[in-house]
């Protein structure tokens, strides 16, 4: 069992930046692939970014490539999402997710592949 707690959300003007953090507790964090997803009102949850357990591979949604960066710090049991050049369409609740068994690239993009989820943190980008 892994517990995930997101932080760092808030209100920011378009063009601004936020850094989300996800703190993990429980099982060995370094064994888990980590992902960020988001859900805007009235929309389905969508993939944002993910990172493999060994930090070797990162994955991004096309909509955030070049603006967002995912990183992990296994010694601190944390994963971060640095979000730059924010746009109003980035407004959503952002969720951290973890899973120990992701292998194929496509699995990182699918919310159904992740077993553990945080409660989410709200990000609002004002125009």
Provide a descriptive summary of the structure in words.
This protein is mainly beta. It contains no helices and eleven strands. It has strands spanning 2-7, 10-13, 18-26, 33-39, 46-51, 58-60, 68-73, 78-83, 92-99, 116-117, 121-126. Strands 2, 4, 5, 6, 9, 10 and 11 form a seven-stranded mixed sheet that branches. The chain has a four-stranded antiparallel sheet with strand order 1-3-8-7, with no helix packed on it. A hairpin with a 6-residue loop joins strand 4 and strand 5.
Cα(first) to Cα(last) distance is: 40 Å
**Mean of all residue-level pLDDT scores:** 95
Q: Supply Rg.
A: 13 Å
Query: Which structural class fits the helix and strand makeup?
Result: mainly beta
Order of helices and strands: EEEEEEEEEEE
Q: What is the share of helical residues? A: under 10%
Given the structure, what is the number of helices?
Answer: 0
Biggest sheet character: 7 strands, mixed
The poorly predicted ranges are none
The total of beta strands comes to 11
**What global shape is seen?**
globular
Strand residue percentage:
over 45%
């Amino acid at each position: 069992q892994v517990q995930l707690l997101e932080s760092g959300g808030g209100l920011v003007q378009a063009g601004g930046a936020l850094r989300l953090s996800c703190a993990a507790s429980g099982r060995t964090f370094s064994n888990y692939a980590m992902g960020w997803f988001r859900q805007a009102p009235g929309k389905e949850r969508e993939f944002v970014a993910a990172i493999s357990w060994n930090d070797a591979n990162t994955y991004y949604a096309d909509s955030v490539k070049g603006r967002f960066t995912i990183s992990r710090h296994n010694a601190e049991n944390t994963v971060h999402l640095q979000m730059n050049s924010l746009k109003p369409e980035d407004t959503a609740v952002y969720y951290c997710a973890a899973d120990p068994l992701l292998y194929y690239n496509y699995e990182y993009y699918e919310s159904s592949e992740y077993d553990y989820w945080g409660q989410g943190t709200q990000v609002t980008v004002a125009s």
